[in-house]
Amino acid sequence: MGGVTPGSRFRGMGDLKLVGRQIYYEQLNFWLNPIGAIFTVGFSVVFLILVGSSAGHQRSSAIGGGLIITYYVPGFIAYGVMAACFNMLTINLVVRREMGLLKRLRLSPLPTWAMLMSVSASALIISAAQVVLVLLIGRFGYDVPFPHNIAAFVVALVVGAISFTCVGLGMSTLIPNQEAGAPVTSIVFFVLLFLSGLWFPISSSSGLAKFSSYFPVRHLILSVYDTSIVQKGVSSWPWHDILVMAIWGVGGALVASRRWSWAPRQARRGHSRSLASSGMMGGRRLG
Amino acid sequence: MPAVSVEHLAKTYEGVDAVKDVTFEVNEGEVFALLGPNGAGKTTTIEILEGFRKRDGGRVEVLGYDPADAATSRRLRERIGVVLQELAVEPFLSVRQALTRNAGYYPNPRSVDEVLQLVGLSEKADDRVKSLSGGQQRRLDLGLGIVGNPDLLFLDEPTTGFDPSARRGAWDVVRALTGGGTTVLLTTHYMDEAEALADRVAVINAGRIVAEGTPESLGGRDVGESSIRFRLPDADGNPPIPIPATVSTNGIYEIKTDKEIEVLATLTNWALREKVNVVGLTVERLTLEDVYLRLTGYEPDTDPDASSVWIGSS
User: What is the pLDDT of residues A78-96, one digit of tens each?
Assistant: First the structure.
């Protein structure tokens, strides 16, 4: 199969260095693109400050009468992780596939696992940077305490980040062309954020909450909130939320492994056009 | 041992035969060109050799490896270089960063400065990829193909879209590489490119190799008939030409013959004797393009304006 093949088997220290270098260039590529960096990292910070300044002092019955800013800080931590691991990653992979970058990588000696590992690790690094940034702004800007169960907070974020990375890998295979990459992904992302209560807390007994609990977005927001803020009668280990995210992650990974294509889905010119557009050039599969 | 050996290669996409029966060999250090029209199977063949696609039939060996064998695919990819038809470089990296990163994938890469010099991008080394012109990006593509110091380089239509001077530059790079012993397998539409670079060419049409040989001998070019062309100053007042010739409406006479020395002697003797001023006399063998068009089944349209008439004595 085309994925982690014996021929591309781990070669020890040399390969660790290879992945390290690849992560470095992934980071370089991200931070050298100011618009991409601002939209991914800057959004969570700007939103937090805007929403926090305008409505942060209000209280909400949906979170037991708590200060609404104590909801927004965990919420934008979750947002930052999803923005990097799902939104940015999906768009990035579609663009790279359609540009022919994935094909070029496939023809280089860089093993598939090393490519996927460095792309995912890079998204995790960007997520972690945002988590720290939002935590610090919350703590020193709005007096929101640091998470009360740090271990559960980290577990929820790590599972969430890996799951959203897998969903992003899967999502990228469902988008047929470069032009659709950003709009489709962003619309799905922002509609789910809205329904899942990022902009305003929603009561868990409402119909909206029940509907959005089928998707992983609400579970990441809730699991970060539950591990951050002490609430009566609520466990600080949100196992249910973590489980739902993990199931979505496995689903995303399965879709990715079945539908993965190294070749552009939409050939732009030349003799491969007819074959490619009729889906005959699916390329080799992962997994 | 040949660098590339292909026997009875076949590939089908959902019932459509993209490659039916392709057999050829590329020797070490040789430049081998695959010529063929769009859809003939060139790219499919090359992608199978690169290990990007799996074949449905036949035997393939590249540098001693089966490109479909996953167990050796990484070792094979460490020894080949690929230049694709697509421009595929991250736009925000600098030229040097892109080359340095890719060099790190290979066990014995070329130095980045050497590659920059070979592809003529030394001055642009610190510029972002997105600021390069289209031609410069294609040269970077070529640089990425050779930075791993490959034993075998695949060039898929390497100069499509190049202006004439950029094409000459790319040819110089390929010649410099082959001077160092690199084997090159290239596909192209351009006959002059095949003629300028290739030691041997194969013409592929509808999934089959229809001819193979040196550019000079392909399709019997070296033994076939020549075409002798000339003009005469005054269309009406000439004495009869001693050999049957065709004349086009723009006044060019043409004689096709495989005895060009005898025909030229007769013609020039006649011109001297009759004091006829023969102008623009040329002797041409079939061009590679003529042979290619014939092999790939191209039938020239009958153009009424260019109709020819037989004249002269018999």
Answer: 999 999 999 889 998 999 9
Residue A283 and residue A286: Cα distance in Å, rounded?
A: 10
Sign of CA dihedral A133, B91, B105, A97: positive
Among B54, B84, B93, select the one facing A29 at the smallest CB separation: B93
Residue A48's H or E segment, with its range, is helix A43-55
> CA B215: distance to chain centroid?
9
Chain A residues lying within 8 Å of B89, measured CB to CB: 101
Task: Enter the ipTM.
Answer: 0.81
Q: CA B189 to CA B168: how far, in whole Å?
A: 16
Task: Give mean pLDDT, residues B40-60.
Answer: 91
β-strand pairing of B4-13 with B16-26 = antiparallel
**Do A32 and B93 count as a contact with CB atoms less than 8 A apart?**
yes
* Dihedral Cα A172, A174, A108, B85, nearest 10 deg: -110
Give the rounded distance of the alpha carbon of B174 from its chain centre: 13
- CA gap A141, A200 in Å, rounded: 20
Helices A239-259 + A150-174 axis angle, to 10: 30
> Which residue bears the tokens 């907070």?
A153
pLDDT for the residue numbered A9: 67
Q: Which residues of B touch A100 (CB under 8 A)?
A: 84, 86-88
> Cβ contact (<8 Å) for B97 and A33?
no
Question: Distance (Å) from the C-alpha of residue B43 to the closest C-alpha of chain A?
Answer: 8
Does B84 contact chain A (CB < 8 Å)? yes
> Å from B100 to nearest chain A CA?
10
Centroid of chain to Cα A176:
20
Q: State mean pLDDT over A97-126.
A: 91
Residue B192's φ and ψ, nearest 5 degrees, are -70, -30
Q: What is the pLDDT of residue A267?
A: 60
Q: Is B245 exposed, middle or buried (0-12, 13-18, 19+ CB in 10 A)?
A: buried
Q: What is the 8-class DSSP label of residue A38? A: I
Rg (CA), chain B: 25
Task: DSSP for chain A, please give it.
Answer: --SS-GGG---THHHHHHHHHHHHHHHHHHHT-HHHHIIIIIHHHHHHHHHHHHHTT-EEGGGTTEETHHHHHHHHHHHHHHIIIIIIHHHHHHHHHHHTHHHHHHHSS--HHHHHHHHHHHHHHHHHHHHHHHHHHHHHHH-PPPPS-HHHHHHHHHHHHHHHHHHHHHHHHH--SHHHHHHHHHHHHHHHHHHTTSSS---TTSHHHHHHTTSHHHHHHHHHHHHHS--TT--SS-HHHHHHHHHHHHHHHHHHHHH--SS-SS--SSTTHHHHHTT----PPP-
**A270 close to B (CB below 8 A):** yes
CA–chain centroid gap for B55, Å, is 24
Say whether B90 and A29 touch across the interface (CB within 8 A).
Answer: yes
- With H, G, I as helix, E, B as strand and everything else as coil, classify residue B59: strand
Tokens 């990441």 correspond to A220
What's the pLDDT score for residue A22? 95
| A-B Cβ pairs (cutoff 8 Å, strict) | 105
Residue B42, number of CB atoms within 10 A of its CB: 25
A203 at B interface, C-beta within 8 A:
no
